[in-house]
Amino acid sequence: MLHLSPTPVTLTLGIITLVVVAGLCVVSFRRSPHPRRTFLLEALRFVIAAIIVVLLWQPEWRTTLNPNAKPVIAILWDDSKSMTTIDATLPDALSAKAEVVARADLVARTLASDLWKPLASDGRNEIITLPFATPPEDTGVLTGTDLESPLSGLLEKQTNLRAVVMLSDGDYNVGQPPVAAAQKMRLRGVPLFPIPVGSQTRLPDLDLLAVTAPSYGIVGENVQIPFTFRSSLDRPVRTLVRLKDESGRERTKDIVIAPNSETYESILWRLEKEGSSTLELSIPVADGELVATNNSRKFTISGKPEKIRVLVIETLPRWEFRFLRNALSRDPGVELSCLLLHPQLGPAAGLHYIDKFPDKIEDLAKFDVIFLGDVGVAADQLTSEQCTLMRGLVENQASGIVFLPGPQGNQFSLLETDLSDLIPVTLDDTAKRGVPEGIASPLNLTSEGRTSLLTMLGNTEEENPAIWRQLPGFFWHAPVIKAKGGTEVLAVHGNRRGKFGPIPLLVTKAAGSGKVLFMGIDSAWRWRRGVEDLYHYRFWGQVARWMSYQRNMAAGQRVRMFFHPERPEPGATVTLNANAFDPNGAPLKDGTVSIDITSPDGKTERTELQKNESAWGAFSGRFKITLPGEWKLRATASGAEDKPVETVILAQGTEIEKTGQPARPEVLEEMAKVSRGRVIQPDQLPDLIREITALPEPRPLERRMPLLSHWATLAAIVLLLGAFWTGRKFNGAF
Asked: Which of 95, 200, 323, 443 sits at 20 to 30 Å (Cα–Cα) from 344?
């Protein structure tokens, strides 16, 4: 049946239009020398105009389906993992005593109750019982609870639906908002009667939310493994975190988990072998904790041998330079180059020394870290162009730069170059030669410094603060006013404060894809007192590895690739960065970089990275993680398809469906309100039966087809207009 819904305005305009078109048709018919043909054409014109006018009146073709079966009462019950939570109290109608059972147990007893028999005994209704959100047999697949899809699917399948009863805890985590299905039920006249199951109070639990370990580490070195716990206990818990590998080697750490909040901590792990290792981080079950399944988490990390290329630039061979050179030259993982620009003697020569600054981009691009000492822009030092090259290296090729100012104040001239923005502190130009100290002053770690791998001088985090307190102090420091925005201060002056607070002397920041470190003292060499090279070598070795970490995530002959985040979760977007080189090692100027991305289900997709507007052969792109598991990346540069670089991204899925979470009856209440039903508590089941029995018969199902948006309508108008135009040609109208 055709149904029109015109507004007063469209109805008036439509009638006026039809009258005007009819008048024009009559005038044209009277003037035509071919009355028969003209009559047919004008009749066609009027039909086309009438169709267009009717379309303005929102026409619908409505079909009424009269059911020929019994009305259906559907009982949907939640079969998700969260229903295993033991926090549901049995009502008097199901148990003689108050007993706390699992939510699923309460649902099972409710379904098996004789209270439902009156609905089917009279023969007027058909009862169907359907589970939803049943977890798959494959325990490795991440699943969740969708409350909207079961209801929408039921409305599509059942044409004579009388009412829906839903037993659930209301905890949905995937799919569309369930209120969307409730709105559809309201339009159909089908009320929803949800029965909330479970407690609104979270069970006492310690939940290991995340382990954000790096994707790789250097063999023989410590890596920092951050992790996060969430507690729903009402008291602090002192516990022992245990980290162990497949061989049984383990490391432990005592921590205190704060009550009813999240606690962020980390633990150190020394990599002893190359290749991938599977580690497990766990804590024991605490007193009063009711959920033990979320107290541990496994992850993988790779061990790599590393050769870090370091360039140290200095003017005078001060003690800081000499001992830094010794520390780096004796590090088996470092390939050292030194450029000593002595103001009187010129460039130094000898083992590990180069005689000039790398002139070509390809020569500079091989360095992972640059240490810039008491050197600036001058005739016998650096040029502005060389400073621009160093900034490009850091920002575009993920290299690191370390600023080590000295008492000559040469680094003040860098403030007039492109390196100015990379310096993470504001300097006082009235004291260019720095600030001498009469007594040895200590460095005090900040809260960020106490948790940073960069400042980890001890074998454990517990002993590290004591080591820093015992380090020999410094007698000179750079004239720092304050740290710039977007930086991280790791250590401050222990005895002196400025107008902005403690003077920052160890500061880091990110610059493009690279890293920056500012070291505002020149006495780190004094840390050798009484312990020889232990802390001094460890600190500078960690600096070199920390600053070159990202650059060496996946490096090949022609392509270097790194990505962020390292351990994405499903749904996250991964940013890919790559540096490509020509056969001579120079940054690729003309060409492309393609990435073949293979997902955990074996599907491969190729994406082409976009070239950045720079001379450094930098490319970038993005892709979305859709599945947990191992994502394989294979990057190739044009002309070097036989020399790819391959790496793996491990997407560790976060468990969506959890036990121990509080029930969400407010979700069910909103659904009931929108569908014109009501929430039924478990002890109100007899009232539910009477209320459903009193419901009227379901309305006949009416299907509506809007003609305005139907393809056949447009096709008919085009066909009629074509016939009208053709007829006018035959009738002699041009």
From this structure: 323
Report the Cα 301 to chain-centroid distance in Å: 20
**Contact between 259 and 291 (Cβ < 8 Å):** no
Tell me the C-alpha distance between 493 and 686, whole Å.
74
Chain centre to alpha carbon of residue 3: 49
Residue 164 has pLDDT above 70, yes or no: yes
Residue type at 298 in one-letter notation: K
d(CA 193, CA 687): 11
620 touches 612 (CB < 8 A): yes
Tell me the helix, strand and coil percentages in the chain, rounded to 5.
Answer: 30, 35, 40
Q: Which of 482, 523, 475 is nearest to 504 (CA)?
A: 482
Compute the distance between CA of residue 103 and CA of residue 682 in angstroms, rounded to an integer.
Answer: 11
Q: Quick count: other Cβ atoms within 10 Å of Cβ 424? A: 23
Q: What is the pLDDT of residue 668?
A: 93
Distances (CA, A) of 11 to 4, 8, 15, 50, 705: 10, 5, 6, 12, 21
CB atoms within 10 A of CB 42: 21
Angle between helices 8-31 and 35-56 (to 10 degrees): 170
- What distance in Å separates the CA atoms of residue 579 and residue 667, rounded to the nearest whole number? 49
Q: Looking at beta carbons, which pairs linking 38-45 to residues 24 or more positions away fall under 8 Å?
A: 38/731, 40/727, 41/724, 41/727, 41/728, 41/731, 44/720, 44/723, 44/724, 44/727, 45/21, 45/724
Q: How confident is the model at residue 98 (pLDDT cuts 50, 70, 90)?
A: low
What's the confidence (pLDDT) of residue 453? 84
For β-strands 237-244 and 275-282, DSSP reports them as antiparallel
Sign of torsion, CA 193 197 199 204?
negative
Quickly count: other Cβ atoms within 10 Å of residue 114's Cβ. Answer: 7
| Burial letters 564-584, b for 16+ CB under 10 A, else e | eebbbebeeebebbbbbbbee
Strands 308-314 and 369-372: parallel
Please check whether residue 693 is in contact with residue 162, taking contact to mean a CB–CB distance below 8 angstroms: no
Report yes or no: 320 and 294 within 8 Å, Cβ to Cβ. no
Q: Are 393 and 340 in contact (CB under 8 A)?
A: no
Asked if 701 and 67 count as a contact pair (C-beta separation under 8 A), the reply is: yes
The residue length of the chain stands at: 734
Report d(CA 692, CA 482) in Å as an integer. Answer: 72
pLDDT in tens, 298-345: 888 888 877 899 999 999 999 999 999 999 999 888 999 999 999 888
Which phi and psi (to 5°) does residue 500 adopt?
-105, 10
End-to-end CA distance of the chain: 40
For the whole model, what pTM was predicted? Answer: 0.68
**Over 60: is that where the pLDDT of 734 sits?**
no
Q: Is 45 helix (H, G, I), strand (E, B) or coil?
A: helix
pLDDT of amino acid 486: 92
Spatial CA neighbour of 636 closest among 531, 726, 694, 558 = 558
